[in-house]
């Protein structure tokens, strides 16, 4: 589910707090027999709603951080590979070997790495859909795979011995390992975010006992006790709740 709905979730919990406070304000007149809409139950649902929103917020921040760190790590790779090819061409390596290295480099240069987080508004980052995340992950995986292939190829050429530390095979292997760790971090934080969203959706939108379902039951009870034209019902009847599109 896309985070385009994140503010809707926050509003639902905030609106539920209004329902809760109005219900408390009715005093002894608010006395439902159904345990699920009694004041203690409403307070628990509200607390659970706040808690699950906090979990999603933390997981979202972790995912955004991991994604941006990966993007920053991958950003210089194309330029680095261009330098590698230039350094290789300055050796006495065979034309066939250089041609093979260039073929791998073309694959790296042709891969498009996009920053999947829209951070133009830090307070409301747009986290892409599952399909977009999957496609992006594949592009990073391809770059890493091709980069490792290039480094492994260089390791077989004894004439490739650049003096520049950043171009040496040992350094390049370390870079490849860092890229792989960034990929892993993105995958792990995305899984955590996805799981917390499932948890949030259950707490807020479960058809049987979710926050939104409970809010509508409270409205019905208040309507039954005070009447459809009562000021009490008018207090809560206009409080809106929304469900995410499936």
Tell me what portion of residues adopts beta-strand conformation: under 5%
| Euclidean distance between termini CA atoms | 8 Å
The total beta strand count reads 0
Largest beta-sheet characterization: none
Order of helices and strands: HHHHHHHH
Give the integer mean of the pLDDT values.
Answer: 90
Structure characterization notes:
By secondary structure, this protein is mainly α. The chain has one domain. The protein has eight helices and no strands. The protein has helices at residues 6-25, 39-74, 77-89, 95-110, 130-155, 169-205, 211-226, 231-237. The longest helix has 37 residues, at 169-205. Residues 1-5 and 119-124 have low confidence and may be disordered.
Keywords, separated by commas or semicolons:
single chain; mainly alpha; 246 residues; 70% helix
Brief overview, please?
This protein is mainly α and 246 residues long. Helix content is 70%, strand content 0%.
